[in-house]
Amino acid sequence: MVRKYQEGDLERIKEITVICFEGVSIDHNIEKTFGQFAETGWKARKAAHMDDDAAVNADGIFVWEEEGTVIGYITTRLFRDALIGQIPNISVLPEHQGKGIGKALMKAAFDYFEEEGMKVAKIETLDQNDVGQSFYPGAGFKEVARQIHYAMPLSERKI
Ligand SMILES: CC(C)(COP(=O)(O)OP(=O)(O)OC[C@H]1O[C@@H](n2cnc3c(N)ncnc32)[C@H](O)[C@@H]1OP(=O)(O)O)[C@@H](O)C(=O)NCCC(=O)NCCS
User: Distances from the Cα of 151 to the Cαs of 16, 26, 53, 154, in angstroms?
Assistant: First the structure.
């Protein structure tokens, strides 16, 4: 079942994040390209996004719980002036994927956006993420832009 996030869920959703975003995160891509460059690796950086999501809008995080265990979540942000609801992160543990949990979490986010008076929902995904690209159009999203992410070690700067 979907329920609202509680403070005690934070460590669990971080755990889910580092499992689910392996191979589909910008932080991981940077590290795969250049190697680990800081004391903490991509997992710690990606997990810290959950701290940010909870700090900005804990009320807009929903989790999927089964037999007392959280196995997926979705985070949201509200841009009240623009009437845009954003979904920064969504994850479902691999062994539970493909059973409709992602869709149920997405529906909870859409319902929340409508309750909060938002008019548009927004989400981003990486080109390399096949599931994201089939899931989101299937939920009604239309592609509006593509973005390229660049990174380089500063030792290689040319200007
Ligand atoms: C994206 C994610 C949350 C979807 O969760 P899920 O519980 O598997 O999603 P659902 O079972 O509700 O399926 C939703 C849609 O995803 C797509 N999908 C799900 N599993 C798929 C698979 N194995 N292969 C291809 N498409 C798949 C389908 O379009 C499906 O819709 P359909 O059932 O109408 O065909 C999950 O795959 C995940 O955590 N991925 C890793 C993290 C990630 O990429 N997050 C998003 C970053 S932008």
Answer: 26, 10, 24, 9
Q: What is the pLDDT of residues 70-116, one digit of tens each?
A: 999 999 999 999 999 999 999 999 999 999 999 999 999 999 999 99
Q: How far is the CA of 159 from the centre of ligand 1 (A)?
A: 42
Q: Which of the listed residues 25, 122, 123, 131 should we mutate to test ligand 1's pocket, taking the one with most ligand atoms within 8 A of CB?
A: 131
Distance 90 CA to ligand 1 centre (A): 10
CA-nearest residue for atom 24, ligand 1, is 131
Q: What's the pTM value of the predicted model, to 2 decimals?
A: 0.95
Q: Considering only CA atoms, which residue is closest to atom 3 of ligand 1?
A: 91
Q: Which fold has domain 2-156?
A: Aminopeptidase (3.40.630)
Q: Which residues contact 127 (CB under 8 A, 6 or more apart)?
A: 133, 146
CA of 103 to the centre of ligand 1 (A): 8
Backbone torsion region of residue 83, taken as left when φ is above 0, otherwise alpha when ψ lies between -120 and 50, otherwise beta: left
Enumerate the domain spans of the chain.
Answer: 2-156
pLDDT (tens digit, 9 = 90+) per residue, 11-67? 999 999 999 999 999 999 999 999 999 999 999 999 999 999 999 999 999 999 999
